[in-house]
Amino acid sequence: MVSDIPGFAVTEVYTMADAAPRLQGLFAQLLGAPLPVRIHAWDGSQAGPPGAPTLVVRNRRALRRLLWKPGELGLARAWVAGELDIEGDLYAALDLLAGLVWERGDDARTLAQALREPEVRAAVRGLVKLAGSPLPPAPPREEARSPRRHLHTKRSDRRAISHHYDVGNDFYEIVLGPSMVYSCAYWPAPDGTLEQAQYDKLELVCRKLGLKPGQRLLDVGCGWGSMAIHAAREHGVSVVGVTLSQEQAAYARKRVADEGLTDKVEIRVQDYRDVRDGPYDAISSIGMAEHVGAERYLDYATDLHRLLVPGGRLLNHQIARRPQRDETVYNVDAFIDSYVFPGGELQPVGSTVTQLERAGFEVRDVESIREHYALTLRRWVARLEADWARAVRLTSPGRARVWRLYMAASALAFERNRIGVNQVLAVRTPESGASGMPLRARTWN
User: Where is this region: Disordered (predicted)?
Assistant: First the structure.
């Protein structure tokens, strides 16, 4: 904390309309390079490259947040509170800032080392003077109270899922559109419709699972019921969908009833660890495994293996991060953990495959659809921006800002290959070795 650094007491507050050029200079000192965006400060002053996207600092509280929580969490709090904004192309601004700001992290050791440099200490003193009151602003109310270490108990997972999904089905209708599918679509072409791309993704999953009339499908993390309804309607299977979200379950049950599929689809508010009515012929897990946690992942894979018949298939659709040289220093993204997916963890696709194999699965196919998620996220952002006023009314200004930032930043992360998404098809192959897979698997018969 800056108040603990000798010589950083607040002795002066600038009142001239020169905050923007001062900030440009101070940030250049702190970051070791000039900011590639313009700054528009609370006093009306502007500075920076002409024609570049503009970082709007609406209130000096944003600086206090950065001083008390340097790095991504401080920036996130200022953004959610509306103290920071971007004028111009949001994607271009995030792309320009990514290397200098968003990816630097919050490592306390790195900060301590930086503060040994006289230029950095001088820049921090300058920010303290601009920031005004030394007291830290309270975090925005949209911030989840996340423990330092996520144990992924049933209770904590239920609370985390509620934070993310129980924000109003009407809000998600704005973002997701009629398909109500909250995972990567599968695009035949970049200019296709979101609804068709989501239909194609659900159909792809069903074909990979080889679904046939009369079979039983377990849909883990069933969301608003889209996969369950598609599989029952298009492939004649009986489906059990499980979710930890009460709001999702109520919405999904109504959709099932409206489709006339109550004899085919059952939606439960249930943890996958409590499912005891196997075996199932197939399991789909689409965008759910990111919530499991690395320490629990083998248990997750083992539970799903137990629930399948011999020869049964699992389709695991999951976001992956790039591997690090030292996996012991991996830290969960501070913004995502505090505002989006509390307790969510990404792991490299190789780790996922290894854990599935350790649980007894035979992994038969891995398909990367990274570019498809970037396209999907850009469509979601466009839908949110087009109906912004209603989205704010349905949730809160802060919540809407969280979703806009995280989806836009995630789209760039997929485009730049910082993260990926993969469909892993695995089989509970029996001892006989007869997997039931076609010789040419990608025909998906």
Answer: 132-157
Mean pLDDT of the chain: 88
CA distance 9 to 169: 48
Query: How buried is residue 51: exposed, middle or buried, by Cβ count under 10 Å (0-12/13-18/19+)?
Result: exposed
Q: In the structure, what pLDDT confidence band is assigned to residue 3 with cuts at 50, 70 and 90?
A: very low
Q: What is the pLDDT of residues 70-90, one digit of tens each?
A: 878 899 999 999 999 999 999
Q: With bands split at pLDDT 50, 70 and 90, how would you rate the model's confidence at 29?
A: confident
**One-character DSSP codes across 268-289:** EE--GGG--S--EEEEEEES-G
The Cβ-side half-sphere exposure at 140, using a 13 Å CA radius, reads 27
Q: What is the pLDDT of residue 12?
A: 42
> Cis bond leading into 34, ω under 30°?
no
**φ, ψ of residue 441 in degrees (nearest 5):** -60, -35
If you compute the radius of gyration of the chain from its CA atoms, what whole number of angstroms results? 24
Taken in order 244, 250, 256, 262, the sign of the CA dihedral is positive
DSSP lists the bridge partners of residue 347 as: 320
- Is residue 1 scored above 80 in pLDDT? no
Strands in 344-409 per DSSP E: 362-368
| CA pseudo-torsion sign 329, 105, 336, 137 | positive
320 - beta bridge partners?
Answer: 347, 420
- Distance CA(199)–CA(235), nearest Å, equals 13
> Is pLDDT at 354 greater than 80 in this prediction?
yes
Residue in 232, 238, 223 with CA at minimum distance from that of residue 258: 232
